[in-house]
Amino acid sequence: MASHAPASPDPEEEELDSEIASIRAEIRKLQKHKRILTSSLLTTDPVQKLLRKPQPPTTNPTDPLTRIFPLVHAAGAHTSSNHHRIAFGATAFPFKDPSPAANGVTLLGVRIDVCTRNGRFAKPYYVILQKERSRAGPGAGGADSKVLKVYRHTVPAFISIAKLESVYLPRPGVTRDNGDGAGGGSSGEDEDTEPAKPWKKGGNSARKQDLRGFVRELRRELVAWHMRVDAVEFLREKLGLVGEGGGPLPFDVSPDRDTGIVSLAAVAIEARYVRIEWVDGRVGRFKLSNTGIVERAVVIGDQGRDKKVEDAITGGGGRVETVLDRLRAEVLSGSPGR
Amino acid sequence: MARPKTVRAPTTASLPNNLRIPSSTPSLTKSLGKLSRQALLDLAFTWLDDRNVASFPPYLQTDEDGPDDDDALPYPAGKTIEEVRQAYEDLQDRKGAKREVIERILEGDWRHGITLRQLAMADLRYMDDHPASLRWTALELSRTDTKRKNFNGLPPTDWSGSVPRMQSATFVQSLQREISPLVKAHYHLAHSATLPLTFLRIFVVDSPYQSPRQAAEIFTDSSRVIYVAFPDSCPYVYTSIATSTGSKSAPSTSSVATDTRTLQRLVRDSIPKALSRPQERFSLQATSLAAKNLPTLLALRGPGRSTASNGAFSIFADAATEGSPLDPRPSNTVSPEEHIRASHSGPTEGKENTNSPATKRRSSGIDTAPLSPDSKKRRLAIHSRFGTLGSSLAPAPLDRLDIRLLDKPGSSDEQYDDDVDDSIFTPPALSLTFSGSHVIGGIRKLAELGIVDPERMPSWMTGEEGVSVATVRLGRRLQKDI
């Protein structure tokens, strides 16, 4: 009996349940909207200016102004930090590691914001740096100098933090075994050169850490990745390969009328390579540079390489955004040949 | 296929895709029977797809030698491929047992045998449906070559990680070149339908012949199958340790068991070599992570954000504390779930796929009920220690966590493991093994119940290191396992 009840619920009840759920969702939506509106209102210029004018009398605890004072203050602080995030893209913050082994040492967090094509911001990327007392650097500035070390980060794996770190945040004598192996490029090199040139190590440790350079290069790489992803997405939209919700279409797509392309997609998450398929079975692949230029392209059909299409993809300045236009032009000009 | 069966010469070629396993092999029914009915139907449709039908031709009437015994068989051969397709569409439309689909495949349309490739596809489909069916070990690919002379001078402009550019066909070819003198193998490479992974399924036999004379059972022996998974865009490789599964599933003679292990080791050793190119040598290194769940590996050693920030730092991986800079609301007034959901504009589909169900599940554990100040304090501490990780159903359920403690039992600052401390008398090192469906989540639960002090527990208990094997001294993981 008890098991029977949930198996076939009353249709009326079900209807009521769904109605309640939808009303709750509506309430949540409105509440959210209200909160966005209040926050926006609090950060508007007039309100903030009102606050900066002569202080309101704080003696009266029931005064509404007194009560909203911390709110307005928080909103102001939040907006200004948002302005920094939007304008500079990289902001720093302190972070306290809650682990007891960390002894309450404050870590340095760097937040990187990247704006994507749809005008939104991607999830911010974080790099948490640890200050480390540099041990016995012979050429470094004494025992007390502190060096930074990447402790945690949320950067995708195909951007090598270890490489960036070894160039911009070198630490004396640590290049060899930084544990995460991915710094193999630099560590291996030390192994090669050290026996031959012992002075090299001194020169290496004397190199200054350059946090600005580190963040700049990292951000550049992240932005480039987002640009590549956006460019591929843009091309897919132009080809009509993207559905309404941004997802792939549920049905088989018809080939693009002018170029005959049936599929265009980034090869991996890194979006460094883009793969194209034509309706006649040709497949192509091109490589995107960080600046949005098509660096190389290969198109292979049944009769081998299709050099004309390859030239069309890489030619004309090589901008990735106009690849389709060039392909169209190529098809139109070369139509008797096909 | 036209190769006469009588001529048998040892070759170094790989086992052909179209090598047929007789459909009467009983274990074939078993290995297909692992799949769900829908999966079987999907497979049949894939095999009958216009692009694939040449590789997996079904048994048609034209193939029949004589017109006899047609009625004796339960599944008359179809006249055209279209007809066969229709038969499966009918099966699709009506409900029924998966038994009938298996029988239709084995006794009907592929009665002349299931090819190795079909079997591989079925296995990979099973993997897609059950990502926790095998135990995987994460290995890191690192470059061992080093001849970049101008390294100290101008900084290189290429910051991409050491991800080998893998062209599947070339890779399989060079892998074949590496292992063919020692092992006969069948390779199947496919991109996972659900995860951002490329699977390589290697089936190994220790026979030099093109069509091995062993019993057909050998082709379905799971201990002879090695899986290697290459996650997209990151320098990691996952392998299945088939030794553990092999010992369970194959209680065969010991010589065979040791043999498959050797074959597996050979294959494993040759993977980095096959990925390497001149001037670009790779080697595989252990990353002290093994787990049953592929999403776990993807979260901890994958291309995404959470690879290098776990435990307390998972709030950064999920961007759970701060929103987009366009959000006018102060960040402390917005719940973490909303942050996670709001900033979902992950730039790629692959990442989206891994993240969206994860975040949904992650956020479900963060609820705010009215609490006493004491438990509120504990809750805050738990949140700060575990971040978003381990709340109810985290995306990275570790099924096993091996910890070796190297602390002297007398040292005063190691009081966090009360239940363990009284068992220590003399041993200088102490090993702890946690196992279960979700170890970190369990520790979090313990902390929520007040059994574990969330403020004083060491960080390895929060999953911060993202490992399944660790050596710990004074609450810190030692980088090199001793």
TrEMBL record, chain A:
Note down the stretches annotated as region Disordered: 172-206
Q: Name one Pfam family in it.
A: CENP-O
Has the keyword Nucleus been applied to this entry? yes
- Coiled coil ranges: none
Compartment(s) of residence = Chromosome, Centromere; Nucleus
The UniProt keywords, alphabetically, are: Centromere, Chromosome, Nucleus
Q: Which GO terms describe its cellular component?
A: Mis6-Sim4 complex; nucleus
Among InterPro entries, the record links this protein to: CENP-O
Question: What does the sequence similarity comment in the record state about its family?
Answer: Belongs to the CENP-O/MCM21 family.
What name does the UniProt record give this protein?
A: Pc20g02140 protein
Species of origin reads Penicillium rubens (strain ATCC 28089 / DSM 1075 / NRRL 1951 / Wisconsin 54-1255)
From TrEMBL, chain B:
Q: Return the InterPro entries for the record.
A: Chl4/mis15/CENP-N
Signal peptide span per the entry?
none
User: Looking at the record, which segments are called Disordered?
Assistant: 1-26, 321-378
Q: Set out the biological process GO terms recorded for this chain's protein.
A: CENP-A containing chromatin assembly; chromosome segregation
Q: Which species expresses this protein natively?
A: Penicillium rubens (strain ATCC 28089 / DSM 1075 / NRRL 1951 / Wisconsin 54-1255)
Q: Which residues form a coiled coil?
A: none
- The protein here is known as Pc22g17330 protein
Q: Where are stretches of biased composition, namely Polar residues?
A: 9-26
